Amino acid sequence: MTLLIPLAGIIALILLILYLKLDPFISFIVVSIGMGLACGMPVGRLSAALETGIGNILGSLVIILGFGAMLGRLVADSGAAQRITLSLTRAFGVRHLQWGMALAGLIVGIPIFYTAGFVIVVPLIFAIANTTRLPLLYVGIPMLSALSVAHGYLPPHPSPTAISAQLHADLGKTLLYGLIVAVPAIILAGPLFGRTLKRFRPEPNNEILRLKQLPESELPGLGISLLSALLPVILLSLSTLFNVFQVKDGPFKRFIDFVGNANMAMLISVLFATWFLGIRRGNSMKTVMKALEDAFKNIAPLMLIIAGSGVFMEVMKEGGINTDLGEALRHLAVPPLILGWLIAAIIRVCIGSATVAGLTTVGMILPLLQQQPVHPELMVLSIGAGSLMFSHVNDGGFWMFKEYFNLSMKDTFRTWSVMETIVSVAGLCGVLILQTLL
């Protein structure tokens, strides 16, 4: 009977979000309360679980997510993302343009949250396609696939960061492993799949081209743009590599551990970008701080979803559901990494939100990880890959792509939905291969 409770909870969550259009945070809370009552939890204990669930998950994430949003805003507003895209596409030339677009998409996608990144790069895609006379989707799909991979796989994006916290995965290792898995996924879903899309000739709305772009003379240099965007990756990777090679303890090692701590790395990156992409370029401190404040406000809805998922997981634990669920999953003849991907993929197809799919899956899969040894960093990537599976009409990204590129429903399924499916399946394959090497 206890095993029916989480299943009923997932179905209720899908119905509330998809059909009643209830806010995901409220949906998580309502479903969690229902599950707690169904388990026989006293009201006082249930109320305490709500508070604990929110506190536990947000306590470790507010700094990383907040600073991540701020860094993304600085990279976007300063024109650093625009500079990276233009420079890399020129460096690769028309013949290898797709590879330049994919690399630019990955670099831009690491610090910038998905929706903001999409809106920033679409005008650049249109401008580059117009200049080179190449088919629009041939140029655009490599960059958008890289944005999607960064959104699903790589910290400091909300979902992989939150999943890492819940699974106690090392953020630096998750990022390094994620980059290893991301490259082949982007190649398959971007340049290779993009080459099959030359027959599509959409005529996008010209209003898109009027979105704000800075004159090239006002853009920051390529070096400072790349360093600002990739500084969190560099700092987190340094700490991880030092630990992998077991460098002896000492002042330098302690310094690297300090700057490589996730919270410190994000703070240092924001301060660096504040100066080099903001103050040094003539912006007042008041203007820069207002932009950072707005950036933090914009991620409030995401943080509420993450908080709701924390409640969901805490109620499952306090209600004893985790124990029974873990015992049941242990007897399934499905490897944990595949199971995590599958659960996330099913929820993603049903609900549409990659973030909700990933965070809901953690609550289901966590009991199994306590009984079967699995690298938590690989489970983060497996769930992240599953959460990108087959974007369709219940996903905001599907509609953004359709409307910006002015495609029919049928062609959006044949392009965008297929690209997201390739990203998801390739991610799982990459994780399984990586598992055999660790």
Structure characteristics:
438 residues, mainly alpha, 21 helices, 77% helix, transport, Glcn_transporter
Any overview of this molecule?
By secondary structure, the chain is mainly α. It has one domain. The chain has 21 helices and no strands. Helix 11 (222-244) crosses helix 12 (251-260), helix 17 runs antiparallel to helix 18 (354-369) and helix 19 (376-386) runs antiparallel to helix 21. The chain is globular, with a radius of gyration of 22 Å.
Count of DSSP helices?
Answer: 21
Proportion of residues in β-strands = under 5%
Give the termini separation: 38 Å
Number of domains: 1
- Count of DSSP E strands? 0
Which structural class should the secondary elements be placed in?
mainly alpha
* Computed CA radius of gyration, to the nearest angstrom: 22 Å
Topology as a string of helices (H) and strands (E): HHHHHHHHHHHHHHHHHHHHH
List segments where confidence is low: pLDDT < 50 over at least 5 consecutive residues.
none
Mean pLDDT: 88
* Helix residue percentage: over 70%
Specify the overall morphology: globular
Largest sheet: none
Give the helix/strand layout:
Elements: H1 4-19, H2 24-38, H3 43-59, H4 62-77, H5 80-92, H6 97-109, H7 114-132, H8 136-153, H9 158-167, H10 171-194, H11 222-244, H12 251-260, H13 262-278, H14 285-298, H15 300-318, H16 321-330, H17 336-351, H18 354-369, H19 376-386, H20 396-405, H21 409-437
